[in-house]
Amino acid sequence: MIKLYTHPLSGNAHRAELTLRALNVPHDLIVVDLANKAQKQPEFLALNPFGQVPVLDDNGTVIWDSVAIMTYLGLTYGDGTLLPRDPALFAQVTAWLAKTAGPIAYGLGAARRANIFRTGQDLEPLIRTGREFLDTIESLLSTREWLVGDHLTLADIGCCSYVASAPEGNVDLAPYPHVQAWLSRIEAQSWFTPLAPVPVGLRAAST
Ligand SMILES: N[C@@H](CCC(=O)N[C@@H](CS)C(=O)NCC(=O)O)C(=O)O
């Protein structure tokens, strides 16, 4: 059975889980105790030298990093719908996946992390980066339903986790009606499951 090492509050792990679900690939979720630094122990570092979730173990084939996991799953278990095989469309999807490690991580993701875990980081520049990303996709999504092509792809799955949880980083989604409609289209998929809301009692913990 495929194993996904994950954490319920991780948007990076969430997009990997959504990919497994969208592809209907049976899997077990293994929650890594990030608060107690299980990810920095030798057993986990043997899976991912950077000591982070998500990690996928496909019967001995170990892949770390959400983008790598999504791409691996799309190529291995997909039929070309979620991850198109046409080189230009494939490249467009990977361009969006690259954003998950760029402005999404440094903007929306970082603002959420700083806000819910009270890291002391200045939220304003993170929020500004997050809003710039939202401004861009709001404009694009005013003329199209999906980020790439005419149907849902890994581009949408990759970007949705930290966009949906933007309010947890004090980024209001009200000014972004097309982004909200896009999120609703993703959330309407039968395989969708939301990123867990942050329990109040955990907010002092740190990942
Ligand atoms: N670029 C990586 C980022 C992974 C990442 O930041 N994981 C966080 C959880 S969202 C983590 O494991 N943090 C624990 C740590 O860094 O010690 C990916 O997309 O997989």
UniProtKB/TrEMBL annotation:
All residue ranges annotated as the GST N-terminal domain in the record:
1-81
- Is Transferase among the key words of this record? yes
Q: Would the keyword Transferase turn up in this protein's UniProt record?
A: yes
Q: What CDD domains has UniProt attached to this entry?
A: GST_N_4
Q: Which InterPro entries match?
A: Glutathione-S-Trfase_C-like, Glutathione-S-Trfase_C_sf, Glutathione_S-Trfase, Glutathione_S-Trfase_N, GST_C, Thioredoxin-like_sf
- Keywords linked to the UniProt accession: Transferase
The family database entries (PROSITE patterns) matched by this protein are listed as: GST_CTER, GST_NTER
Q: Which residues cross the membrane?
A: none
GO molecular function per UniProt: transferase activity
Segments forming domain GST C-terminal: 86-207
Cited Pfam families: GST_C, GST_N_2
Q: Which family is this protein grouped under?
A: Belongs to the GST superfamily.
- Put simply, this protein is called Glutathione S-transferase, C-terminal domain protein
Q: Organism source for this protein?
A: Asticcacaulis biprosthecium C19
